[in-house]
Amino acid sequence: MENNKEQNIKILKAIPEDALGITTVLYKTWLDTYPNEEIGITKEDVEESYKDHFMEERVKKQQENIANAPANQLRLVAKSGDQIVGVSTMIRNENNNQLRTIYVLPEFQGRGIGQMLWKEAQKFCDSTKDTIVQVATYNKNAISFYEKLGFTDTGKRWSDDKWKMKSGATIPEMELIIKVNNL
Questions:
Q1: Which fold has domain 3-182?
Q2: Contact (Cβ atoms closer than 8 angstroms) between residue 152 and residue 30
Q3: What are the beta bridge partners of residue 79?
Q4: For the chain, which residues make up each domain, given as ranges?
Q5: pLDDT for 164
Q6: Residue 13 β-bridge partners
Q7: Is there a smaller number of Cβ atoms within 10 Å at the N or the C end of the chain?
Q8: 87 beta partners
Q9: If we measure between CA atoms, which residue out of 21, 132, 130, 27 comes closest to residue 77?
């Protein structure tokens, strides 16, 4: 696994004890990224969607999910000392590799941590298959980041009720891809 001595960032496979740190990164990053006045998603929507994630039973469930992750899934964490500052999940599907997440705490963004997570996640990919990632259509920073990694827009757009907020607004999504011959 990659270790960046300059920043003292280590990329490691997630372990059950990382569950709370992973949830914290996701929550803080969602709060920073997804509220959008134009779409109608508020900070309260994000807070509401995460309100149960820090409860003991939910953290234990997350720990179990990490401990019993299927063989086709890799969850990584980026650590600065003992603090989890980034997370990534890669899934090898039957037809493609799916980069489910790369999230880095807002105060740690722009330091190459997302690229370090991607570099490590790529080692897990099936090199004979395309790699896709889904991103909010208005998340310009993420879209730019993925494009720098070599992803291109497939033109697919949709909204899924699983991302419907308490306010009724739904996060609109798009797909980006790296074709096999571009890896």
A1: Aminopeptidase (3.40.630)
A2: no
A3: 10, 84
A4: 3-182
A5: 85
A6: 76
A7: N
A8: 77, 103
A9: 21
Strand order in the sheet with 3-4: 3-4, 9-13, 73-80, 83-92, 97-104, 131-136, 170-178, 152-164
Helix, strand, or coil (residue 171): strand
The pair of structure tokens assigned to 182 is 């571009």
- For 83-98, letters b (16+ CB in 10 Å) and e give ebbbbbbbbbeeebbb
Q: What is the DSSP string of 98-141?
A: EEEEEEE-GGGTTSSHHHHHHHHHHTTS-TTS-EEEEEETT-HH
Instruction: Specify the pLDDT at position 1.
Output: 56
With beta carbons less than 8 A apart as the criterion, state whether 43 and 31 touch. Answer: yes
Is 0.85 topped by the overall pTM? yes
Strands 152-164 and 131-136: unpaired
Q: Which amino acid is at 67?
A: A
Residues in the chain, how many? 183
Task: Name the 3-class secondary structure at 39.
Answer: coil
Specify whether the CB–CB gap between 100 and 26 falls below 8 A.
Answer: no
